[in-house]
Amino acid sequence: MKPRLVVIGNGMAGARLLEELVARDAGRHAITVFGAEPHGNYNRIMLSPVLAGEKTVAEIMLNPREWYARHDITLHLGDPVVAIDRTRREVTSRAGVTVPYDQLVFATGSRPWLPEIPGIDLPGVGGFRDLADVETLQARLAEPAPVVILGGGLLGLEAAAGLAGHGIDVTVVHRNPVLMNRQLDDAAAAILRQALEARGVRFILGTQAEAIEGSERVEAVRLDDGRRLPAATVLFTIGIQPAIALAREAGLDCGRGIRVDDQLRSSDPAIHALGECIEHDGRTYGLVAPIWEQARVLAGVLTTGRGRYRDRATSTRLKVTGIDVFSAGRIDPAPGEHCLRLRDPQQGIYKKLILRDDNVVGVVLVGDVADGGWFFDLLGERRDISAFRERLLFGERFCEPDDTTRPAIDSPTENAA
């Protein structure tokens, strides 16, 4: 009899694991998947283009129902698991479906982090994490009432750009004076802000929400500096929390996420986990690249018993209409590190590379991100760049060994403080 594998979660992490399993050893497991959403697997990164009208829901679907049927995977949509009996090795769904397992995988993802402030439960207040959130926002586009987005990170800015493209009055409130402060330095963030302001997005930086006001639904956001912003919709994009309530109820060892070892195994040897719901070596995850790697490793563990997950450098890329941003590694130099910078304000281009000795340790690009992947490879591989250090900012094309048309850069290096 085939080993019975149950996957809790049909988001990008869970579905990627299924793809890896099918590619490695199709038919090895009897697989059952439970998904909380009523849709097949879709590309969550593309929610902002759907909101902006640049993509349709059909265009961002990755694995429709037919894909699961074709690979003999039993799929329960809109029916999340609500109970786990670890002794009997059974899961039970909200609809009362009980399925036994030999191996169980948590891929429950995350949920928006909502602060405990007055008014947080008012209608019109929520996050921006799934298709239901997009559909709710799209339904309000016919009545262009003001929207306040709390959080100036990647997700918040993409949502703001999408709404502004529909002519909606959008204000982004960010507690840090620098947008995307975990990925961008001051100069890069200023260029990004200017580009988004030209598209109609307003910003209030260096402050945060103190309360949400309203009687029957949200009417305004009160900031901690006393200002009051009218709002018919408030979106929180200030962070995520691993969705681990079910894991805690099942008695698994949890910190910020479900604690797993290098084989992505939980405190129960029959239960693994991956994606935004896990904690590995004290770290949680919110970007696609490490989750893809986790899916690859876990597929190896489940099929051959071999595989080991190790954290690697990751990159962040933001793309809204006409604006490209790329970031990887460090964004500010430490003592003993150096910066290479290139600025072209008229073209909205900014490039910054951080070097330690002869290795790239940080990349920040705005406007021209064509060489982002190449810089990221240099960073990840710790390649020695001494042979083309003075040409590095011009990108891969000017650093090829046989290239004889190489411009020089006049004094591009700045010592770190």
Automatic annotation (TrEMBL):
InterPro entries: FAD-bd_OxRdtase (IPR050260), FAD/NAD-bd_sf (IPR036188), FAD/NAD-binding_dom (IPR023753), FAD/NAD-linked_Rdtase_dimer_sf (IPR016156), Rubredoxin_C (IPR041575). Residues 315-379 form the NADH-rubredoxin oxidoreductase C-terminal domain. Pfam families: Pyr_redox_2 (PF07992), Rubredoxin_C (PF18267). Keywords: FAD, Flavoprotein. The keyword Flavoprotein applies. Residues 4-282 form the FAD/NAD(P)-binding domain. Coiled coil: none annotated. SUPFAM superfamilies: FAD/NAD(P)-binding domain (SSF51905). Its cofactor is FAD. Belongs to the FAD-dependent oxidoreductase family. This is FAD-dependent oxidoreductase. It comes from Guyparkeria halophila.
